[in-house]
């Protein structure tokens, strides 16, 4: 089979084969472990692999051969209207383990379906009805048409914004609901969205610097950069689907699918200033503090707002309001502040002479060194080591 293995085609071919392999591995994991995020990431990797295919084949000389060219013309490799929704649903599947695609979500795939119909009409008209080029009389691949590339870019930008909104809502909810928010904020999804943002920034720059879509050679560096970035997503995402911590199992994460952003923020108690005051706020402040300190609940690294509410025989909204209004902080920060106080108490009793700082932190309920250092500095404005040196605690 003819293929010109030159520098450009060979480089893209490496990423092409790796994309095929990783998409297969992700689909296999999704089926074997019923892991929804792996399925969505597998589709993203597969679509990204198809995205670079026309240029890999083009640099390999396939468009210069009539038989190959006619096949390539009629295959819609670049599914730009699918990439955005896949990113959005991958984000949701990672951050909400109860997420399942519903019938109403199918509307997101309508533009891609219409484009598929468009490509079928082109094929039927040119190859079966007229038996001569009508749509392809200009000899240019429709996937690279300016209108389609612009529309696809706008679609991906829109879904990136939706994904970022969903992530930040999740992040705020996590700080309101659990004392171990740092462990479930999915640094991976943050990295993933950052890399996808970089891909779109490159796309915009390419539009500005090189608007001529019909020159294959001038696009190589963009597609090489895209290949590197999507391979990073494939490689990192594959391993992160294995090690990722569990997501918050709460219907609150469905807010972006049901209401506007203002209502989401109000409903999830993120706009503290708009909350109504609790009549017996001081009493609840004292009760919460006394209970958490005396019972040592802060030593539970998996402590949640629901745990505290259940123990105090009240509802979680009241506890959340009391902490937000009474201590001017969210639940996560409040419990971590209690843990920092406990660490300082152990410092003053000299436990740092027989145990490591991390060991003391873990005893007090922290689940990682980074969370401990961040919470300690937030409360004392010093690192644990600097605190020991400055305060003269030995």
How would you portray this structure in words?
This protein is mostly helical and 394 residues long. The protein folds into 2 domains: 7-257, Up-down Bundle (Rhopdopsin 7-helix transmembrane proteins), CATH 1.20.1070; 280-391, Homeodomain-like (Arc Repressor Mutant, subunit A), CATH 1.10.10.60. It is built from 17 helices and no strands. The protein has helices at residues 7-33, 36-59, 66-73, 80-95, 110-129, 146-177, 187-209, 220-243, 255-258, 261-267, 281-295, 305-311, 316-327, 331-348, 357-363, 369-380, 384-391. Helix 1 runs antiparallel to helix 2 (36-59) and helix 14 (331-348) packs across helix 16 (369-380). The longest helix has 32 residues, at 146-177. The protein is elongated. It starts with 6 loop residues before the first helix and ends with a helix. Keywords: DNA-binding, Membrane, Transcription, Transcription regulation, Transmembrane, Transmembrane helix. Residues 286-390 form the HTH araC/xylS-type domain.
